[in-house]
């Protein structure tokens, strides 16, 4: 039985490709967490800037657009964290410290969105509270997926800290979601 050189080369390259899968590296995970931080702060600022009365539809849609952008970033980052595998201790600590840095913005945004519900409901377009309810549910699911991926890929010495951050972030969603429930 003879193999041609071309077939042997293809088989060899295929074996190398499957034995060395491409992994997203820790730099991508760090870039993602920085992007998420920026988007969380942007959403928090947009909610804080929305007035208790007299807000505009354009500003409300800006909040929705910020929520959608954050949701997309969280979903992409989840894929990248999973692909990166377990982070080293120094890298894991850096990522968790970044998340801890913007965690207060998550809380502020969730409290703020509840406080501003009457202002959103008063806008002359129906369905805005339902859209916010949907955004909150989507963000909770994406936050859960991302935070769980961080916990799963945290080094053992940081798993408890990562779990605490995840649990704290998720707890804030329930009152906000309940406030906007139909």
UniProtKB/TrEMBL annotation:
Q: Carries keyword Phosphoprotein?
A: no
Q: Which Gene3D superfamilies match?
A: 1.20.1280.140
InterPro entries named among the record's database cross-references: Cell_wall_mannoprotein_1 (IPR021054)
Give the highest taxon in the source lineage: Eukaryota
Pfam families given in the database record = HsbA
- Name one cellular component (GO) term: extracellular region
Which UniProt keyword terms apply here?
A: Signal
Endpoints of the signal sequence: 1-19
Annotated protein name in UniProt: Hydrophobic surface binding protein
């Amino acid at each position: 039985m003879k193999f041609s050189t071309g077939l042997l080369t293809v088989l060899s390259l295929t074996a190398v490709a499957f034995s060395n899968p491409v992994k997203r590296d820790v730099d991508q995970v760090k870039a993602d967490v920085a992007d998420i931080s920026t988007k969380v702060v942007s959403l928090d600022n947009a909610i804080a800037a929305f007035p208790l009365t007299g807000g505009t539809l354009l500003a409300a849609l800006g909040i929705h657009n910020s929520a959608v952008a954050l949701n997309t970033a969280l979903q992409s980052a989840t894929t990248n964290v999973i692909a990166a595998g377990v982070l080293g201790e120094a890298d894991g600590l850096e990522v968790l410290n970044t998340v801890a840095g913007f965690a207060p913005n998550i809380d502020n945004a969730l409290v703020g969105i509840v406080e501003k519900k009457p202002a959103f409901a008063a806008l002359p377009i129906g369905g805005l509270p339902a859209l916010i309810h949907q955004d909150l549910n989507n963000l909770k699911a994406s936050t859960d997926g991302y935070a769980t991926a961080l916990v799963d890929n945290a080094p053992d010495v940081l798993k408890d800290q990562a779990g605490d951050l995840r649990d704290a972030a998720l707890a804030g969603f329930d009152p906000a979601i309940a406030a906007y429930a139909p």
